Amino acid sequence: QLHLQESGPGLVKPSETLSLTCSVSGDSMISSTYSWGWIRQPPGKGLEWIGNIYYNGNTFYNPSLESRISISVDTSKNQFSLNLYSVTAADTAVYYCARVWSSSCFDYWGQGTLVAVSS
Amino acid sequence: DIQMTQSPSSLSASVGDRVSITCRANQSISTYLSWYQQKPGKAPKLLIYVASSLHSGVPSRFSGSGSGADFTLTISSLQPEDFATYYCQQSFSTPLTFGGGTRVQSK
């Protein structure tokens, strides 16, 4: 059974970098059928797509965040990571990682991790 | 960006009721539409993909329909575990976008 787990700091200071890692177990990340994505959800609000990455490093970013984000993959560790730069309080959210089937839907999700931006 | 609008934003229903939720895109997205269920404090779960295909393990009381710009998620007989928030999501083009959600609560 595929399992995804987010990890990283729960508190980040304004103007600093939010860094999260998603560890994938139960299957290899190396696949042309699947990509791997990040989604976030501010407290009490809806879902926002951040970006996706394929095992070969090809990325697709949300233009609203593209200037501040970087997503990378390490297939040797079966992990992918998110960096969000110059954060503000508006970046406070639960961050989810997920598997993306055929560039279409998020079929498996991590449990999510709350990241607060505060001094 | 493609905007996804769900209606209603919330509804009250009883166990056994037939429930329908609508999702409308501001342009045609063919059948590039997925539905998710989210319970408080939990990650969303995929229910339906490509508008009408049931994800593995999802009960058959859930169904999806529609194409173009108008889509519907139907729960044929609401069960206690179905009280949750439901989101639609389009994958016709990036950025991938979600609807604002529909909260299904107990009457």
* Helix share, percent of chain B: under 10%
What form of chain A results from the Cα inertia axes? globular
What is the CA-atom radius of gyration of chain A, in angstroms?
13 Å
Report the β-strand fraction of chain A as a percent range: over 45%
| Alpha-carbon distance between the two ends of chain A | 39 Å
List unreliable stretches of 5+ residues of chain A: none
Total strands of chain A: the figure is 11
Mean pLDDT of chain A: 97
Helix/strand order of chain A: EEEEEEEEEEE
Range of helix content of chain A: under 10%
User: Given the C-alpha coordinates, what overall shape of chain B results?
Assistant: globular
* Helical/strand content category of chain A: mainly beta
What does this structure look like?
The complex is a heterodimer of chains A (119) and B (107). Chain A is globular and about 40 Å long. Chain A has strands at 3-7, 11-12, 18-25, 34-41, 48-53, 59-61, 69-74, 79-84, 93-101, 105-109, 113-117. Chain A has no helices and eleven strands. In chain A, the strands form two sheets. In chain A, strands 2, 4, 5, 6, 9, 10 and 11 form a seven-stranded mixed beta sheet that branches. Chain A has a four-stranded antiparallel beta sheet with strand order 1-3-8-7, with no helix packed on it. Chain A has 119 residues and is mainly β. Helices cover 0% and strands 53% of the residues of chain A. In chain A, β9 and β10 (105-109) form a beta hairpin. The mean pLDDT of chain A is 97. Chain B has 107 residues and is mainly beta. Helix content of chain B is 0%, strand content 50%. Chain B is built from no helices and eleven strands. Chain B has strands at residues 4-7, 10-13, 19-25, 33-38, 45-49, 53-54, 62-67, 70-75, 84-90, 97-98, 102-106. In chain B, the strands form two sheets. In chain B, strands 2, 4, 5, 6, 9, 10 and 11 form a seven-stranded mixed beta sheet that branches. A four-stranded antiparallel beta sheet of chain B has the order 1-3-8-7, with no helix packed on it. Chain B starts with a strand and ends with a strand. The mean pLDDT of chain B is 98. At the A-B interface, β9 and β10 of A face β5 and β10 of B.
